[in-house]
Amino acid sequence: MRNMSSPSHVKDAEARIHEENIEAVTRxxxxxxxxxxxxxxxxxxxxxxxxxxxxxxxxxAPGPGASSGFLSLENDDxxxxxxxxxxxxxxxxxxHGIPWNAYPxxxxxxxxxxxxxxxxxxGVRPFRRFLAELPRVSAIVAHGGYAQNLIAEFTKSGGDLxxxxxxxxxxxxxxxxxxxxAGNGTQQEAWFVDxxxxxxxxxxxxxxxxxxx
Length: 213
Description:
By secondary structure, the chain is an alpha/beta fold. The protein contains seven helices and six strands, in the order ααβββαβααβαβα. It has a four-stranded parallel sheet with strand order 4-2-5-6. Strands 1-3 form a two-stranded parallel sheet. It is globular, with a radius of gyration of 16 Å. This is Uracil-DNA glycosylase.
């Protein structure tokens, strides 16, 4: 059982959402949710740190796996588990990485986690605001086609200048979700290694050393 499956762990996380290391993103998530009546925008797990984050883990959208109310490596959906495994394999500490979604509003399960071009465009402004809160980010790992399409829309709307001026590199890797990893064991291992390699390279660019074992 993952930590976010525990009500006491969720309660502890909720008690920390206004701490300095995550307050700016909490505020952004609340504003996005309030701006679309009836919507849900999960908060970012306060183990992450806006001042220390060097790498953004960009995925598609929150779905049923975000039932904890948080984007978290400790959620129990397959994408969160796989991303946590990639962080561990690369030696990336949670405070140096931070999750976000191309479309930050929660999607119903029946959508199949598919985004329309309109939804992707709607995610550009929130992403721009999110990135502005992360002064030390030097890499974005875009998981899957929707995340990569969001980056394409972002660059077309002036984001290319932001990425260039800040020296931010974009890595394109497979989605961490179950559907994207539908293959045999050899294929799955290769896809996972590609993901870990992207994080490892991004850590090197950021000057982050692997923790001593």
